[in-house]
Amino acid sequence: MSVQYLADAAYREEVLLFFSRVIPGQVIEAITLFATVAVFFSLMVTPIAAISVYIERRLSAKMQSRIGCNRLGPEGIFQMVADGIKMISKEDFMPQGADAFLFKFAPYLVMVGAFVSFACIPFSKQLLLADINIGVVYLLALSSIVVIGIMLAGWSSNNKWSLLGSLRSAAQIVSYEIPLGMSLLIPVIITGSLNLQEINQFQSGGIHNWLVFYALPFTVPAFVIYFISALAEVNRTPFDLPEAESELVSGFHTEYSGIRWGLFFIGEYHNMFLISCIAVTAFLGGYQKSAANFPFVIVSLFFMFFITFHILTFLPKLGFSLFQGKNILDMLMFHHPKPMRRWLRIVCLILAVVVSILFYINHAHSNMIQVVTFISKAYFLVLFIMWLRWSLPRYRIDQLMDLCWKKLIPISFICLCGVLVWVVLI
Amino acid sequence: MWCLGVGGIDMKQYILDIVHGISSIAKGMWVTFTYLFKPHATVEYPEVNVESMLPPRYRGILQVDMDLCISCLACERACPIECIVIEDVKGDKTFVTSKLTQKPTPKVKYPLRFDIDIAKCMFCGLCVEPCPTGAIHHTRKFEGSVTNVADLTYSYIRDTDIELAEKQVELLANKKEKEQA
Ligand code: SF4
Ligand code: SF4
Prior knowledge:
Radius of gyration of chain B: 32 Å
Radius of gyration of chain A: 24 Å
Number of strands of chain B: 5
Distance between the termini of chain B: 119 Å
Oligomer: heterodimer
CATH class of the largest domain in chain B: Alpha Beta
Largest interface: A-B, 15 and 17 residues
Shape of chain B: rod-shaped
Strand order of the largest sheet of chain B: 2-3-5
Number of domains of chain B: 2
Number of strands of chain A: 0
Number of helices of chain B: 4
Bound molecules: iron/sulfur cluster
Mean pLDDT of chain A: 81
Structural class of chain A: mainly alpha
Mean pLDDT of chain B: 85
Distance between the termini of chain A: 57 Å
Strand content of chain A: under 5%
Order of helices and strands of chain A: HHHHHHHHHHHHHHHH
Number of helices of chain A: 16
Order of helices and strands of chain B: HHEHEEEEH
Shape of chain A: globular
Helix content of chain A: over 70%
CATH topology of the largest domain in chain B: Alpha-Beta Plaits
Largest sheet of chain B: 3 strands, antiparallel
Low-confidence stretches of chain A: 1-6
């Protein structure tokens, strides 16, 4: 009954009117916005780091002929909880001679810079926290805040490795911002808007409208250049010079431990997801309906169903054995027998295909479907970044600069001019 | 093209560099991609019995077959880090069948103490080689962790060995008495 009331617009008006007599309207608006942001971050953005860490661990294990974490919970899915608890419960250590305030402040800068950027990413038609007109500029500006965080971390640690790492990071990020900005200008030129939502809307209608295929000889290299320089921006391998383990212990976060180190870690994984989100929004059609989304949606739905089934079949067993008073750690070490796993895989694949077809049909009506489409595409790029990390060795600093100044910048400039001509002529 | 050549950049080399870079990255990534579909090389250790997967000449924790040991001290002398300690007494002569040659080997000394400090042992196998009866040998066991390092000093003497030693010492003494008489 109450649901009916809430769905009734007149009733909702009445409730709002009642509240607005007590509380001013701006406060209600602020509270609603705050609640949206809180729900959004806690449900969508925060788990990304944990899930990415888990996926990266399993993926890297597979690529190195290992098994990876599969002990805690079905297929090791609770490993991320254990990692989190470990990180929080470790000692928070500060070196002697460190600049206390900056040392404590730096991780927040890095993390907040990564978090706040998500505000203008259009996850779906309505799920967009801030529909700002200068979305692209906003993203580029915020990516520089992360650099400040890294610089402060390196400088305040009172450690030469940290300082070297942070200086490298500064040099790297400042150089790579140029090709990054130039390649992000290309979607802006084509759509004539800095608003990410409008850039997204421009690509509706299918794969041929995706900006990466708009002016084939120029936009494809531009996309590649965007991806490479974004990788360098977030210090991911093969551009992880600021934290090169073999040379600088671990670069700018050498002196960090416990949850402060964890904040850097979370920031790194969020940045990874962020650059994938921007790539999807600006080049790969965003959340728009397209038959080309099928493989991404099917794969991500498959893994979602697979993990859900595992947890669902695992929980009764866990509850039962807790009831019997057995050791919880023994119980968490749970493996499905092999034939059951194969059987589950087939069921999940069929379910994923069916559900993705349903998604395709109902795409326009549901925000949730659009979000799933968007995230599965973005996650595909995240997987690609991980794949790169476990395949390629690290660049040397001169090679890094050579790549940026002699290759990426001229080529992105040529692409930019080419797209300008293309837009004018065609 | 000539204007780009001014900066000392060889255009042909430039393009070749890019092509080579992209193709080598693609090659590397293909290699890691194929690994996604290969079975893993590691095993889940405590559940899987790895002892059967060890190589045939695996040198695990030492074991001494006290029924065969003739207390010749060859192993104690061979050990480069002196982690074998043997104390023995002289007794009446008996024969044991060597595991290596299947021939009876005379035994005149009887060990009362046979300790090997596994914590020090480096599993070099030098003690196994001189043993005339094959009493001391490597097992395939490798799980030796204990909470107290003193527990790693393995003692191979059983109660029956001490009984035997006492019996043989008595026999020898009786023999000597008879001879003197
Ligand atoms: S294996 Fe080597 S170190 Fe160990 S007891 Fe024998 S001789 Fe000594
Ligand atoms: S070498 Fe063999 S027979 Fe001789 S004391 Fe050692 S274990 Fe016994």
